[in-house]
Amino acid sequence: MKPQIFDETQPLQEILVWGEPGIEALLGQLLPKSKSLFFSYYEVLEARNEFRNMRALVEAEGIKFTQAKDAFVRSVKNKQIPNEPKNIVELEKALLQRANEHYETYRENKIKDFSSEGIKGDIDQVFLQIQKEIKQILAEDIACYGEVGAIRLNYTLSLSQNLPLANIFYGRDQSQALTDKIILSALKWEIRKSEIDIFKEALIELGYADNLIQIQAGTLEGGDIVLLGDTCYVGVGARTSMSAVKNLCLQLGEYLEQKGIQIVAVVNKRHAAEAETHGVPTDEHMRIMHLDMFWIPLSPTLAMGYGHEIDQREVYRITMNSGMLITEDLGSFREFQAQRGIEILEISKEEQENFATNLLNLGNKTLIVALSTNTRVIKELEERGFRILSAELNKLVNGYGAVHCLSAPIQRKR
To answer: Which domain holds residue 34?
Structure first.
C-alpha cells in the first residue's frame, strides 16, 4: 500500500484522521490553556457529534475515511502494556483519580482562564460534568473496541503520560503524505510529543511501514506542509523550525526533485525567533501556528489567504547540491505566488480567526469549510464556481484548529 499525494487540489480519495476526541480531551478541559493548547473550555460530547457529522459529509462524497485510532487499537490488542489497569473497574477508577488530580492542581488557573476569556462557566460544575462524561465515553469505547481495546487505548492516551494527549484528534499534525511517502512529524509542545509514536504504530498497522520518513532534527508539524503544483510549501514560525525543513530536504529533497518538486520554506522570522525562547505559546502564535491557519490552495491558480500574515512571510528554497544543503532567498511570499500565477483570495482578520482557510479541499471545486458564519467568503467562493459544504465545527475549533487540522489526505487522484 502506498500513499499518493501530489497536489492539495487534486480529487480526494482517502483521508486519514485520528477519530473523535475522547476521555483524553475531557481531561484536557481541566488543564490551563498554557498546557492544554485549547481555548479555556469546550463541550467534548458535542465535539464528538461534530466529528461524526464531518465524517458523514466526507463519506457522502464517496471518500474513504480511515481512523488511526482504530488501527492503533488493533495494533495493541495483542501487546502487553506495562502498568496498564487489569480491568475496566480499575481503569475507570484511575481515570477519575487523574481527573481529580488535574482539578485540584489547576483549579485556580482555570478560574483565571475563564475570567480572562469571559467564560461564565463554573469550573467546579465542569469538573462534575467531566466525571459523568468519562463514564459515558468509556462505555462507548468498550462497545466499539471491547474491554481490552478500551483499556489500552485510554491508558495510553490519558494515563501513561503526565498530561493527557488531549490534542491527538487534530490528526494532520502528526503525519503528512508527500508523493508516495509519509512524513512523521516532530511536535513542538510537550503535551503532544508522544502522539508521534502512537501514529507510527497506527500507520504501520495500516500497511505504510515502508513509506515512513521521520523528522530527526528541529520541530515540524503537518499543518505547516502544503503541496501545490511543483512546490512543497513548509511554514516556519511558531511550530515548525528551519532546521526541520532542512532535515526534510536531507532525507527527501533529492527524491522530490526527481519528481519535479521543490521544497520552499515560508518563514515568519519573528515567530521563529520567539518560538525558540517562549516557554508557553502566545495567543498570537496559536492563531497563526501553521501555514493552513492563514493560507490554503483552492485550485492550481487560486489560494485563499490572510494578507497581513502573507506579508510577514519570506520564501527560501532549500535544495541539495553534491551532498550540501543550499538555501536561496526567493523574496516575499506574496511576490513568490504572483510570479507563479497564483491569485490570492484575500480574507480579513476576523475571517482568519474564524478558521476560513482551515478547510478541506475535496478537489473538483468542492470544499468542506469549518463554519457557515464566514458568509462573505462562502459567497465569493460560490460565485467563483465552488461547491461549499459546512461541517459546523463550533466546538472542535476551540482547540485552535478546524477541518484541515483534523484530516490528513492520504490518497488523491492524479
So the answer is: 20-49+66-159
Residue 400 identity (one-letter amino acid):
Y
Residues 6+ apart with CB under 8 A from 375: none
For residue 100, give the 3-state DSSP assignment. Answer: helix
The C-alpha atoms of residue 336 and residue 338 are separated, in whole angstroms, by: 6
Strand-by-strand arrangement of the 181-184 sheet: 175-178, 181-184, 212-214
Instruction: Map residue 254 onto helix, strand or coil.
Output: helix
Rg (CA), the chain: 21
For residues 185 and 234, is the Cβ–Cβ distance under 8 A?
A: no
C-alpha cell at 21: 476526541
Q: Within a 10 A sphere around the Cβ of 397, how many other Cβ atoms?
A: 22
CA–CA gap between residue 138 and residue 136 (Å, rounded): 5
CA–CA–CA angle 174, 23, 79 (5° rounding): 65
Q: How many other C-beta atoms are found inside a 10 Å radius of the C-beta of residue 347?
A: 23
Distances (CA, A) of 180 to 2, 4, 289, 331: 6, 5, 26, 30
Residue 130: C-alpha distances to residues 19, 25, 127, 148, 393 (Å): 20, 10, 5, 23, 21
- Please state the domain count of the chain: 1
Question: Model pTM greater than 0.90?
Answer: yes
Instruction: Say if 127 falls within a structural domain.
Output: yes
List the pLDDT tens digit at each of the 414 positions of the chain: 799 999 999 999 999 999 999 999 999 999 998 899 988 788 999 999 999 999 999 999 999 999 999 999 999 988 888 899 999 999 999 999 999 999 999 999 999 988 888 877 789 999 999 999 999 999 999 999 999 999 999 999 999 999 999 999 999 999 999 999 999 999 999 999 999 999 999 999 999 999 999 999 999 999 999 999 999 999 999 999 999 999 999 999 999 999 999 999 999 999 999 999 998 889 899 999 999 999 999 999 999 999 999 999 999 999 998 889 999 999 999 999 999 999 999 999 999 999 999 999 999 999 999 999 999 999 999 999 999 999 999 999 988 999 999 999 999 999
